[in-house]
Amino acid sequence: MNDPSADPAQQKQRLRERLRFRRKHFVANLDAIARLAAFRALPQPLADLIADRDPIAAYIAWGDEPDILPMLAGLPLALPHHAGRDPAMTFRHWAADGTLAKGPWGPQQPGGDAESVRPALIFCPLVGFDRRGGRLGQGGGHYDRYFAAQSDIPRIGVGWSVQEVDAVPTESTDAPLDAVLTEQEFLLCGDRL
């Protein structure tokens, strides 16, 4: 009989539950000043890295996810876009004063008339991460499918430091991160950047 605890999908789901709980309580216990200060300025190595990349893919923070839009102010941005409740994800150009609409999965996204773009670098939210670039997402596989189709685009996971684990369970469809940004550090996870 197979041991279900060895199934990476089940391991990931259990880990997601623990990390969402940990993230929720960490963010709830941050004072207002600390939460506002987090992710407001690009660390210098990262600022140098993205200086000539256009556009930069970001995301609209959902729930307890870090809000990175203030630190990217003034840069050409793209945001994830879903045409419907299917696995396909694209990126659409978005300006800070641009309109947003509720996407089919919940988070805000650029309207359908926004220009589709191929990002030069992707900041992606995460539920968990490890120091080797392992990324645990929400579980829908949207980013992993995009990363597989566009494997040359550098990817930086964004999360709170409490979301770090020793090792993220991986499957063949999981794409590793090139770096991770938390409120405490910018961590390179490979040699692609």
From TrEMBL:
<dbReference type="GO" id="GO:0046872">
    <property type="term" value="F:metal ion binding"/>
</dbReference>
<dbReference type="GO" id="GO:0035999">
    <property type="term" value="P:tetrahydrofolate interconversion"/>
</dbReference>
<keyword id="KW-0547">Nucleotide-binding</keyword>
<dbReference type="InterPro" id="IPR037171">
    <property type="entry name" value="NagB/RpiA_transferase-like"/>
</dbReference>
<dbReference type="GO" id="GO:0030272">
    <property type="term" value="F:5-formyltetrahydrofolate cyclo-ligase activity"/>
</dbReference>
<dbReference type="InterPro" id="IPR024185">
    <property type="entry name" value="FTHF_cligase-like_sf"/>
</dbReference>
<dbReference type="GO" id="GO:0005524">
    <property type="term" value="F:ATP binding"/>
</dbReference>
<feature type="binding site">
    <location>
        <begin position="135"/>
        <end position="143"/>
    </location>
    <ligand>
        <name>ATP</name>
    </ligand>
</feature>
<keyword id="KW-0067">ATP-binding</keyword>
<dbReference type="Pfam" id="PF01812">
    <property type="entry name" value="5-FTHF_cyc-lig"/>
</dbReference>
<keyword id="KW-0479">Metal-binding</keyword>
<keyword id="KW-0460">Magnesium</keyword>
<keyword id="KW-0436">Ligase</keyword>
<feature type="binding site">
    <location>
        <begin position="12"/>
        <end position="16"/>
    </location>
    <ligand>
        <name>ATP</name>
    </ligand>
</feature>
<dbReference type="InterPro" id="IPR002698">
    <property type="entry name" value="FTHF_cligase"/>
</dbReference>
<dbReference type="GO" id="GO:0009396">
    <property type="term" value="P:folic acid-containing compound biosynthetic process"/>
</dbReference>
<feature type="binding site">
    <location>
        <position position="60"/>
    </location>
    <ligand>
        <name>substrate</name>
    </ligand>
</feature>
<protein>
    <recommendedName>
        <fullName>5-formyltetrahydrofolate cyclo-ligase</fullName>
        <ecNumber>6.3.3.2</ecNumber>
    </recommendedName>
</protein>
<feature type="binding site">
    <location>
        <position position="65"/>
    </location>
    <ligand>
        <name>substrate</name>
    </ligand>
</feature>
<comment type="similarity">
    <text>Belongs to the 5-formyltetrahydrofolate cyclo-ligase family.</text>
</comment>
